[in-house]
Amino acid sequence: MVVSLLPYRALRSISRSNLRTLSEKLQGIAPATGVSCAMNGHVNGGPPAAGMAPSRGVPAAGGALAKGGGVDKAADFANYFCTYAFLYHQKEMLSDRVRMDAYYRSIFRNAKHFLGKTVLDVGTGSGILAIWAAQAGARKVYAVEATVMARHARSLIAGNNVDHIVEVIEGAIEDITIPEKVDIIISEWMGYFLVRESMFDSVIYARDKWLKPTGIMYPSHARMWVAPMRTSLVEHKQQEFQHSMADWGCFLQDTSDHYNVDMSCLSNPYKEEQTKYFLQTSMWNSLYPNQIIGQPVIIKEFDCLTTTMEEVSSVRSSFKLPFHPGHSRLCGFAGWFDVHFKGSPTDPADHEVELTTAPSTDETTHWGQQVFLLHPPLNLQDGDILSCSLDITRSRDNHRLMDVKFVHQLERASGEKTPLITSPYFIE
């Protein structure tokens, strides 16, 4: 589940080449043209208006923090939940065949888990998972949806003749009540790089309050992956940053010449702002497998039956990345996730199902991968290994967005070690 109205979904209805072209255009990575010194001539865009996600130019996931550190529920609803109230957005997720096929197979190939059982669907959206649970034989399904999409879900559920089984409840899972404990909790809670959006919190809350001791989580497990990568995006983003700063220089000169005001005292804050936007904000991308230049590593694993709120609020990992021979440049890091439907230790699935968002030539998803570019790239020698630590924490201003920090060092085959480099990023 990703809160984004941007239509660069990796769907089978869109060819891979067209998708890549579309994503590049939407991310503004086409080569820049000349710099204009016109007063309003900002070249190749810049930070979007307030409330927009810098990496995509769409409404950012909400979750503003209230005074005292709690979540401002009104702001969270206005900026996050309401995005899911659009049928357009639901259609985009329902068109993701990798996503849909994985959930469909996990339910119907393991119908024994649902037959005669009670199910809680957290964040039902259109109601598709609740419908499948009912069709697989569930006795009762509670489909909880925080937005007015609940009304469309009721229509869809009635239209598919399972309204005698599925009860749609409009409200946040933390605010509603149901009359019984459930056998299964099903949800599609995953955000970019798994943890963006922090919706897993709501699933954990539901699990702790409503799941029977013998209950099953769908999905049951999740993993986060990181790999070294190559890409031409580094040069594009550097070019955009340089043009933005050149445009600022023109702006300073024009303001001084026409209005006799010296704006240069704002140059450092402006540069910091543009650096974050162009060079430190992670990017959505749909990578080819041959852009991965070393062995991917698992940085975090979650057992959805036992994971705690504390464990999902931050991710810390140390690892080493060996490189495939013949690659001379490290351009950045790629991050993705997979989830698994394994049932439970006491009631394992008959057929385990995996949903992966790894780079692929054809099985692409709307999640894509998160790309963390290095500025500048690192020069590699055969035999190099990258020693790396990674911290992912929630933004202080918005608990649904993430701050990311890579600290890395090359270990040469000769035994030499390069200086430590700290690379901060933002998943917005």
From TrEMBL:
<dbReference type="GO" id="GO:0035242">
    <property type="term" value="F:protein-arginine omega-N asymmetric methyltransferase activity"/>
</dbReference>
<dbReference type="GO" id="GO:0005634">
    <property type="term" value="C:nucleus"/>
</dbReference>
<keyword id="KW-0808">Transferase</keyword>
<dbReference type="Pfam" id="PF22528">
    <property type="entry name" value="PRMT_C"/>
</dbReference>
<dbReference type="GO" id="GO:0035241">
    <property type="term" value="F:protein-arginine omega-N monomethyltransferase activity"/>
</dbReference>
<dbReference type="InterPro" id="IPR055135">
    <property type="entry name" value="PRMT_dom"/>
</dbReference>
<dbReference type="GO" id="GO:0010228">
    <property type="term" value="P:vegetative to reproductive phase transition of meristem"/>
</dbReference>
<dbReference type="GO" id="GO:0044020">
    <property type="term" value="F:histone H4R3 methyltransferase activity"/>
</dbReference>
<dbReference type="InterPro" id="IPR029063">
    <property type="entry name" value="SAM-dependent_MTases_sf"/>
</dbReference>
<dbReference type="InterPro" id="IPR025799">
    <property type="entry name" value="Arg_MeTrfase"/>
</dbReference>
<keyword id="KW-0949">S-adenosyl-L-methionine</keyword>
<dbReference type="GO" id="GO:0006338">
    <property type="term" value="P:chromatin remodeling"/>
</dbReference>
<dbReference type="GO" id="GO:0006355">
    <property type="term" value="P:regulation of DNA-templated transcription"/>
</dbReference>
<dbReference type="GO" id="GO:0016274">
    <property type="term" value="F:protein-arginine N-methyltransferase activity"/>
</dbReference>
<dbReference type="GO" id="GO:0042054">
    <property type="term" value="F:histone methyltransferase activity"/>
</dbReference>
<comment type="subunit">
    <text>Ring-like homodimer.</text>
</comment>
<feature type="domain" description="Protein arginine N-methyltransferase">
    <location>
        <begin position="240"/>
        <end position="410"/>
    </location>
</feature>
<protein>
    <recommendedName>
        <fullName>Protein arginine N-methyltransferase PRMT10</fullName>
        <ecNumber>2.1.1.319</ecNumber>
    </recommendedName>
</protein>
<dbReference type="Pfam" id="PF06325">
    <property type="entry name" value="PrmA"/>
</dbReference>
<keyword id="KW-0489">Methyltransferase</keyword>
<dbReference type="GO" id="GO:0032259">
    <property type="term" value="P:methylation"/>
</dbReference>
